[in-house]
Design a protein that fits this description.
heterodimer; A: mainly alpha; 0% strand; elongated; B: mainly alpha; Serine Threonine Protein Phosphatase 5, Tetratricopeptide repeat
């Protein structure tokens, strides 16, 4: 037997045209390319950081 | 395809020839996005709109700048009745690439038909209102509003689904099936629609088997829930059906109502119209009749005038023709002239002139006839005047007053200087008893010879006759 209330919960209001501008402005437009580019940049930054000499920050050591 | 790092055009190799960046994975992402777009396009073509939406969304998750995928997604949303979402996709698409983008044309087409656009906007707003009504428990109102929405926007899948849900909740499964069929015609693989359809069919099968029972008879009651109440409908009890008698009865009622409407509404108006037409015809006929009567009167008057003219002309003609007509008198005058010129009897000439004198107004004769008449009379009167006067005296003395009166008149005709002749003619008439003729002659004498003896005698005679008559 159908459970009306449960089924009704699955319905959501439709986007109205008046709300369109706000919806477009707040749209989260991040795609896989963005992630990939970001990952590439992060990897490049990590490589650059690895190329610098590591300073000994232990107590009692002078640097 | 351009390098995401430097924007240079990429070649077939796996790195950018300009900045040496490795683009292997980047290319795979773009290819995958395009592949998903192709799949979405295939699904959209066979009206698998839900599947198309999934593919296109995945495509855009991989590459948000896939213009074709975004435009197609907008089209699919528009086909599903989601106008705002369609516009959203097209606006984003236009932002990514303005030139050579179909999205701009789609937006333009919608904006051109403002009336339809307003309807679409209103249906979305009404749908949200109907959904809120459902949540508040106003299901009947929600059904009415959703019916209105689906008639205004026949592609609004969510509205069909919500309406089907409401019908199912009200146990109106046939209606629910009909509504959800509309939704499935638009989107064949919509999960919600398919699930609803499955539930409806399951219920239909269950109710059918329940109705038939073990022995295939309608022995089990039908149970269903409505407004949180369990309703048990006995399956063996049916609404009384209207059989053939009921059908005939209904037809008769319809006929009676129709006749009543005809009698009370249509017929009076028709009768009035016919009466009005008849009255107009009668007025026209009356007008024609009056005109004909006037024409007839005019013709009758003309006819009377023509008849009067005819009679006058006949009388006038009779004066000229016949024994007593002018022509006959002229003939007599000519005969008399011939008689005189041929040396005939003067008495016959005189007699002919006397007859013309007594029958014709000689004053009205033509000039030539009058001249001929006077000439003949002047020539014969010296021979006849005295002779005639002598005959008259003889007759008077003999007491033959009728003869003497005529002879005295003739004598006066031949010689109008003989006033005694006319006086004795009057006396003869009086003695013969013709007082009317006598009075005419006395009056003639009084008028013609007023200061003479015979004038005074005539006056006395007139007085005497007046006393006798009075």
């Amino acid at each position: 037997m159908i459970d009306f209330d449960e089924e009704l919960k699955k319905f959501y209001p439709s986007l109205e045209v008046d709300q369109l501008e706000e919806a477009v402005n707040h749209a989260e437009l991040v795609d896989a390319v963005d992630i990939y580019v970001r990952m590439g940049k992060d990897a490049a930054a990590a490589q650059a950081a690895a190329a610098q000499p590591v300073r000994d920050m232990r107590p009692g050591r002078r640097y | 395809m351009k390098c995401y790092n430097c924007g240079a055009e990429l070649s077939e190799v796996s790195f950018c020839t300009n900045c040496k960046t490795d683009v292997t994975l980047y290319k795979k992402i773009i290819y995958m996005s395009n592949r998903l777009y192709n799949e979405g396009l295939e699904k959209a073509r066979v009206r698998d709109l839900s599947g198309a939406v999934k593919c296109l969304r995945q495509s855009l998750k991989l590459n948000k700048e896939n213009i074709d995928a975004r435009n197609l997604l907008g089209l699919v949303f528009f086909e599903m009745g989601e106008t705002a979402r369609a516009l959203g996709e097209w606006v984003i698409s236009s932002n990514y690439r303005e030139a050579g983008n179909m999205a701009g044309e789609y937006i333009g087409m919608i904006q051109e038909n403002q009336a339809e656009f307003d309807v679409l906007k209103r249906t979305v707003r009404d749908y949200n209102g109907a959904l809120e009504m459902c949540r508040q428990g106003n299901k009947d109102l929600a059904i009415i509003r959703l019916k209105k929405i689906t008639s205004a926007n026949s592609r609004y899948i969510k509205a069909y689904q919500l309406l089907a849900l409401l019908y199912m909740d009200a146990s109106q499964y046939e209606r629910a099936e009909r509504v959800i069929s509309h939704a499935l015609a638009i989107d064949k693989t919509n999960t919600v629609s398919l699930r609803f359809m499955q539930m409806i069919q399951e219920y239909a099968e269950a109710s059918e088997s329940d109705r038939k029972g073990i022995f295939g008879k309608d022995d089990e009651p039908v149970r269903f829930v409505r407004d949180n109440e369990l309703i048990i409908q006995p399956s063996g009890v049916h609404e009384p059906r209207s059989g053939s008698f009921g059908t005939i009865f209904n037809i008769l009622i319809g006929l009676i109502l129709g006749l009543a409407v005809m009698y009370f509404l249509v017929l009076p108006a028709r009768i009035n119209a016919v009466r009005e037409d008849t009255r107009t015809d009668i007025e026209e006929l009356q007008a024609n009749l009056d005109k004909r009567n006037a024409d007839y009167d005019a013709l009758q008057q003309d006819l009377n005038e023509v008849n009067a003219e005819r009679i006058r002309l006949e009388e006038s003609l009779n004066q000229y023709i016949g024994d007593s007509g002018t022509l006959a008198d002229i003939d007599k005058l000519i005969d008399a002239a011939e008689e005189y010129l041929s040396g005939g009897d003067v008495a016959l000439v005189g007699e002919a002139l006397w007859e013309i004198h007594t029958s014709v107004d000689t004053e009205g004769m033509s000039e030539s006839c009058r001249a001929l008449f006077d000439s003949l009379l002047a020539n014969v009167s010296p021979y006849l005047a005295d002779v005639t006067y002598g005959y008259a005296n003889g007759s008077y003395n003999m007491g033959d007053y009728e003869k003497s009166s005529l002879l005295f008149e003739k004598a006066y005709f031949y010689n109008n200087n003989n006033s005694d002749a006319i006086y004795f003619a009057a006396v003869s008439y009086q003695n013969a008893g013709d007082n009317i003729k006598a009075k005419d002659l006395y009056q003639f004498i009084v008028d013609t010879y007023p200061d003479t003896y015979i004038g005074s005698m005539s006056t006395q005679a007139l007085n005497q006759l007046a006393g006798v008559n009075g």
